[in-house]
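Intended use. Records such as the TOD1/MUCI70 glycosyltransferase-like domain-containing protein entry shown here are meant for training and evaluating sequence-to-structure methods. They are not intended to support clinical decisions.
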Amino acid sequence: MAHYRNNSELFTERRGIIYTIFNSLGKSFHGSRVLRRSRRFGRITKNRLSRWVFFLAALFSICLTVYGLKMFFQAKIESTLSLPHNLQQERNIAETILVSDAGRPPKSKHRKQHFPCEVQFMKSVDGLVEPKSYMNFSQFSLEYVDEEEKLSENDLFEPQFGGHQTLEEREKSFYANNQTLHCGFVKGPLGYSSTGFDLNEKDKAYMFSCKVVVSSCIFGSSDFLRRPTSRLISQYSKDNVCFVMFLDDQTLSKLSSEGNYPDDRGYIGLWKVVTVKNLPYDDMRRTGKVPKFLSHRLFPNARYSIWLDSKMRLNSDPMLMIEYFLWRRNTEYAISNHYDRHCVWEEVLQNKRLNKYNHTAIDEQFNFYQSDGLTKFDPSDPNNLLPSYVPEGSLIVRAHTPMSNLFSCLWFNEVDRFTSRDQLSFAYTYLKLRRMNPERPFRLYMFKDCERRALVKLFRHRTLPSPPDTA
């Protein structure tokens, strides 16, 4: 063992592997670089190896966790399926799952495409004559509650446009016989203010003269004004059909600011503008049901009427529509089915998912209908009275027969009593009317939605609908 000096001190020289390597490399500069690289390579290898070990351990733990959860849920499902239960219980479970999704937005998916289909109209209105036997429907007399007396000295009494119909009066109103029933336009006792939907006398005189009517409305500036396509409407219809657009002051002002001024006779294109004062409801959608359902009250001398939602432009001759939907089929009321939904259960869930109306109010109405006999729509049932329980009520063609007028009053009363979502009350009203009058059929024709699309041009609303009621 040798010694070497460092700052005048002797240290023992240790010869080993490092000494041997330096010797083999001749203690060159290149050799010292190789030594440093070998040390660094060792440290890097150890770090990488530890990282890989940690990564593989974590991955293994995740796999075990996923596998354990999978086995757990599979065991839960198998245990559920192994329990004995009948078909009705399965349906109840499915309904509970669907109802639990109420209030959530629907899952994103591609929107279905809907297209028009051919409608076999007559080629022209020339020679068009109402069939002699057409009005051979159920005949009875309808009178309407025009004024209500104050039932008590209660100071909380407030007149309502739809009146204060009791449940007993409601039940009796479904019988197709001579009767006096609530059907809107109900005034309060002397000294109380108007309940709404006030018209000036000049407009009333014009409406009393109408025999055939096409009507629509815009309240709360919710839509643009869509003028009927004049070139597709015969001169006969232009001369003999009343085209009436109901507006409130707000909408009239908005349309005027956009250049849609009524002329000296009160027309904008084919539309005769009728301004409504003192709207009966705060909910514009509910107010819109007045001209939609009660055309026989607004036009008491009319024999036929066509309702058109303001989101649509009429592209067909109204007289050809009356011939096609009513005269040719010997029906007194025509409305299209919904393009997507056919069961009230589905419509209830959709209204909740999209928050179309207060959920509690929807449940109250729906539960009431179920307790009074409303059942699910079964498309496989050959005895179904309708091809769908959900209408697309934006286009209605009707004759003003006693049964048609009664159905319109009953449907309006449901909208007045419950929610303004008229698609929820359509099937119930129709089925109850048929059930309570087996000897007096109501001839309602539900046509295809693609036919509706062939007759009108659809647009989007100008603004979002009025917010849901919180009542």
